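Hey, can you fold this one?
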Amino acid sequence: MNAASKARVLLVEQDSSVLHSYRARLTKAGFHVAETSRAEDALRRAEDQEFDVVVTDFVLPEMDGLELVRRLRQIAGNLQSVLLLDTADNQLSLEAVQSGVFQSLVKPIPPQILYKTVDLAVRSQQEAALVETMPHHGWKTRMPISFQASDAKNKFARVLEKAIQGEIVLITKHDAPKAVLISVEEFEALSRASERKIDSLSAEFDALFSRMQGPVARKAMDDAFRASPAEFGKVAVAAARKRG
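Sure. Predicted structure:
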């Protein structure tokens, strides 16, 4: 079934011509669209109705689009969002991802791009809702943990950045250490230290082996092999008394 067939979209745009144009495009694509030009009105509508996706302009009179998305997610945790920008802005797009925005689009937006983006956002919202209603039996005895992929990516990125900066990240389970995340530089340093220890042991072994190949050591070993049990015992007792 098409994701748009029963999807509910809240469209927030202060430019009335853009608002009506985008509503017409989304309605034609099969979405049920509610429109408003004010953020406060969008919040009131979200409290009274259920929506799958909010499509909002960043520039709004009462608050910016990111703040609106954050407040809407407090009302409806699974609500997906698409942010509309007037110009490309990498910093703003990054902040949008950190706020859980599904996608940022730069205006003017071609109808097909708008439809496909909202359609994907609806599918993501529906999948998240499906996970929450999964039956509890067998291996499903515990409620699945559901969160946005962007949230997981951001959390991992913060942990990874700490390791890259040289910090040692200890990963625990039930308060017991299970793994350590370190940078490549730290790993290489540890590897070099291990190599130095191995090289040192190898050098000591080579030196010991060289000493064993000398004439004095060879004679001592030959004498030991030729010695009778009684003679070997006397040597062992003498050596023990010398150490004691």
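The chain has two domains: 3-138, 147-181. Let me know if you want another pass with a different chain boundary.
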